[in-house]
Amino acid sequence: MTGRRSAEEIGSTPTGPRDLPPLGPQRSVPAPEEVDTVLGSGLRVVAVRRPDVPMVELRLRVPFADTSERDDSAHAAVAEVLATTILSGTSSRSRVGIDDDLAGVGGEIGFSVDPERLSVSGHALAEGLDTLLDVLADLVLAATHPEDELARERERLVERIELASAQPSVIARRALQERRYGAHPVTREMPRPEEVTAVTADAVRSLQASALLPGGSVLVLVGDLDPTDAVARVDKALAGWSGGQAAPLPALPELRARDLLLVDRPGAVQSQLRLSAPAVGRTDPRYPALQLANLALGGYFSSRLVENLREDKGYTYHASSSLELDPHGAVLSVETDVASEVTAPALLEARYELGRLAVVPPTDDEVESARRYLVGSLLISMTTQAGYASTVAALAAHGLSSAWVREHPARLEAVTTDEVAAAAAEFFAPTRFTGVVVADAARTGPGLRALGGVEIP
Amino acid sequence: MTSSVTAPARGLHRRVLDNGLRVLLVPDPAAPVVGVAVHVDVGFRSEPEGRTGFAHLFEHLMFQGSESLEKLAHFRHVQSSGGVFNGSTHQDYTNYFEVLPSAALERALFLEADRLRAPRLTQENLRNQVDVVKEEIRLNVLNRPYGGFPWILLPPVLYDTYPNAHNGYGDFTDLEQASLDDAAAFFDAYYAPGNAVLTLVGDLDPDETAALVDKHFGDIPARAVPTRPSFAEPPPDGERRESVVDVNAPLPALALGYRLPDPQADLPGYLAHAVLASLLTDGEAARLTQRLVYGDELVTDVSASCGLMGAPLDARDPDTFTITAVHPGTVDPQRISGAVDDELATLAAEGPDPDELRRVTARWASSLHREHDRLMSRMLALGSAELVQGRAELADELPGLIAAVEPSAVAAAAGSLRPDQRAVLTVTPGGAA
Fold first, then answer.
1. What is the CA radius of gyration of chain A?
2. Domain check: are A233 and A265 in the same one?
3. ipTM score of the complex?
4. Which chain B residues are closer than 8 Å to A100 by Cβ?
5. Domain tally, chain A
């Protein structure tokens, strides 16, 4: 044991502390070659040449909202089954045939739905682009949703929903959506098991025929491709896809400030805190300043929430605030998961940090750090084919193009500390928020009641 | 002492500093970003008895400041340079890394060197990070269904010795007893420069970067490098069964665990198991997916994995091949393991169809291309391959090696997964109780 150093000895050297090196020059990169066009069917196609690896990434976003305006609408359940059984077979391919054809070109394709849209994500070796498009066209135009496959997929889906519904994060998300938006279709992110069980093959086929439409949809291809040629291939492969406009999500009800709702989860050893308030989206002139204020609060690790709740108090592994964007607007979401015994203290600290951001605004240093992080992480996220494709698809769904991303660093650079302070004061005051606490009510109720601002059923 | 090696695809420059630090320099000018990673040759298999979870707790402490950096400064400097960071603790190694705009290359080297030279280990930070780690464990294990399934729950069934069998996240009682002296001893024993690999990937000039590496890491004094213990133990001599109750789980689950070949001694045999895992459960047409999900309708989901932590070649011997399934309560798990045995026996006897094998290897190639398109993933793969398997080049050669796996090798791999040499873990829902 002789010669072993103490912790104190380990932490210092004869040289002493050293100075942080400055940043060097930053190389910029030219925009990649891109074609962004709308086909005769109304489908917008964006093709981008990024030949870093011999792959191509595909994203398709189809607005796919429930337009029934009925509280008992089966849309969410039918859409969820559709997204599962669409891979079960087409008039010319079996389920295994679809997978074999994709695997032959190193490809995969996946369908998912949410209250806003149906999303397809796929990729293949670049040489397999035609196969990937051919399979996509076959699924969109000729999926059969066979009865026997559908019956089985319905059962599996019910099991998966039961699995997911046991996750605290899913319980909290559902409770938050209902607290924020009542019965609006946007709350139906995951159907109930009994709704899924009632879905028929006819309902699925009918929804596919009436709602899976090219008008207003966007297809993005990014990879080792020639953009003009790729668009021509899409035009040819999807020539049979027509039929009109896909259904966008109706505007959300205005988010109102309310007490948080305590949702009991007996026996929970950890509590989910979810707070939310109205915000503004990408095209609002206040958006860059709001983004920077959000970063300073909890948008990254070096933020007030993380430094307080995690690094000072040890209440949590993660705490964050983020902007959730939808086609009509945006909301702020603050969330953290904390041990049951510190639920009320953690809520107190979260509210304190919201209030502090509004009245003790981010300093020049905090703003500059957030700015550098946003510009840098945006650059990093666009360095992969998959990241580029997902970003362009998300922007396109909001009617924006890749130019928005290229121009965004300049918008961020132009924001002043005063503008960030104004956004902080406008958007982050704790009195603007609503939300939920999912927790063991018996253990956390007394503390939350003492703190106030929490509705305890 | 300096040596250089060039890999076929893209340049890979290898150096060793006088203090023993191994350095990999991999220029990749595709985008103006750089990645810096330090892989240290210690994982949770090396943590002392009575200190379960210590390797991971220590990883947290390495983010808490160093001689030139106050608490929180590391995070702030990486992020205010536009970068992202993380660290992770595996069976045999711990990594620390950041990806940043290339302007921040020297800054990242400074940050990594400062904590490898002189981390600031304090009582206050230790107690704070014990609390944070406990919340991480509640989040990922205790408060969710199937937490730690199978990576924490299966090893104690398959293995006998403490290094291989214990919980790498740690017991709360052990974490609470961790002391500052433990931390100092752990750092001195394992975080010697000669026990680490520094990997740099991205928009960098190899010569200029080598000089910056010397400037920041060169004066870290050499220390004794620990002798790496063998974690070898005999394979199980029968089928070992255990059952656990999960109060959060809505459905029962089953995990089968088998021993993998030692990748150092038998790389082709090991890779045949990686291909086998894909043949069994990757995609709708995969054999176990077809049989268990669509054919016999016994399970909701099934997944095979070569390696306990989800990625092949991530650990030294011994490592684990797993098959996991979630299934309805009406299904006897014996029927599931019986069907798995059937499918393995068929593959062992007949081997895979050549077309089936070609499709699996095409998917592998494409998934590796996608992984390598992400600088962070490629950097971590290169660093762990260098440290764990002794050859960074393996990370880039993997698509070719996978494509070269013969049907007979896959058949042999299927035959090696024997019912009388495995662990069977059943998870029973306990929520209704």
1. 25
2. no
3. 0.90
4. 285, 359
5. 2
